[in-house]
């Protein structure tokens, strides 16, 4: 018994001595690696969630600023820092979602300089990997010529491909292609049908475009009351185009009684969402002093904002106003 005790005691003593000799610095990196692994996995999940949020917002027809704010809200609510996410994306360009989101950061100048050309290249890479969100954003870039390449044929093909998969954003975009002859011959009836399908799936841009069709008799009979109702629905869903369209109805008595106060409020709300049509219309009200005190300074401000967002007629209005100052 004594021999067994002595033997066991020697083994235990040796284990303790060996443990005492361990360099704790050798253990710490292992713990750090585990934490890093967990952090990396969490970030990877977050990237997928961010892309999913963007995907849902696109299908609902949310404007760029709203989409971006939703991403910021998610990031901040989860205690993350934009720089950390940017760094992770920079060093993890292995999956289509991370490639797309890195392009999104470059497109909007998040953490880095605004670089739409780089964003376009990243979207194209993600598109080849069948990333649907990248395909949706790339189609818009091809239509507008943002990022260095305007390609109506590619825009049409991408929109058609995704429409066949049942995507409401693509349906609305394809309707726009048929409406304006982008990559395909003009077909107003087809445009209306596609807007209608997108609208039924809850895409607010499709709803607003349907309203335009009813207002102007595009692919369907003119129905001013129906147009007003659709604009109201799109506006209620937070769609800036819908707000501007509804404001126009109130300003001009389209499908409703004239109410300049409501028109002004709607233009203001849509203008704050960087809708260049609403910015132009708001500037016009300030210029004329309609439902507000005449204010040429504010008119110039909003005409400038409208011009920056791409409104072609804003430059002429600016030139006219600057001449009288």
UniProtKB/TrEMBL annotation:
<dbReference type="Pfam" id="PF08238">
    <property type="entry name" value="Sel1"/>
</dbReference>
<dbReference type="InterPro" id="IPR052945">
    <property type="entry name" value="Mitotic_Regulator"/>
</dbReference>
<protein>
    <submittedName>
        <fullName>Shc1p</fullName>
    </submittedName>
</protein>
<dbReference type="InterPro" id="IPR011990">
    <property type="entry name" value="TPR-like_helical_dom_sf"/>
</dbReference>
<dbReference type="InterPro" id="IPR006597">
    <property type="entry name" value="Sel1-like"/>
</dbReference>
């Amino acid at each position: 018994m004594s021999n067994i005790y002595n033997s066991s005691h020697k083994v235990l003593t040796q284990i303790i001595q060996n443990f005492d000799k361990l360099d704790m610095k050798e253990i710490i990196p292992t713990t750090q690696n585990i934490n890093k692994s967990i952090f990396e996995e969490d970030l990877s999940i977050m990237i997928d969630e961010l892309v999913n949020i963007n995907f849902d917002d696109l299908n609902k027809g949310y404007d760029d600023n709203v989409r971006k704010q939703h991403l910021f809200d998610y990031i901040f609510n989860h205690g993350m820092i934009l720089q950390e996410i940017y760094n992770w994306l920079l060093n993890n360009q292995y999956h289509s979602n991370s490639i797309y989101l890195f392009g999104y950061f470059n497109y909007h100048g998040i953490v880095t300089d605004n670089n739409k050309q780089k964003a376009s290249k990243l979207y194209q890479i993600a598109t080849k990997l069948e990333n649907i969100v990248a395909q949706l954003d790339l189609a818009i870039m091809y239509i507008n010529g943002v990022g260095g390449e305007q390609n109506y044929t590619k825009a049409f093909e991408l929109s058609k491909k995704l429409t066949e998969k049942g995507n409401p954003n693509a349906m609305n975009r394809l309707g726009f292609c048929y409406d304006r002859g982008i990559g395909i011959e003009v077909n107003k009836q087809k445009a209306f049908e596609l807007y209608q399908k997108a609208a039924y799936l809850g895409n607010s841009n499709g709803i607003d475009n349907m309203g335009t069709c009813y207002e102007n008799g595009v692919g369907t009979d003119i129905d001013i009351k129906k147009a007003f109702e659709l604009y109201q629905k799109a506006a209620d869903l937070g769609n800036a185009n819908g707000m501007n369209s509804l404001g126009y109805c109130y300003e001009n008595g389209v499908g409703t009684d004239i109410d300049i106060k409501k028109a002004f409020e709607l233009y203001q709300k849509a203008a704050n969402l960087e809708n260049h049509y609403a910015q132009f219309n708001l500037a016009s009200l300030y210029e004329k002093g309609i439902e507000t005190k005449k204010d040429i300074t504010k008119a110039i401000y909003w005409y400038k904002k409208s011009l920056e967002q791409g409104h072609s007629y804003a430059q002429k209005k600016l030139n006219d106003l600057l001449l009288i100052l």
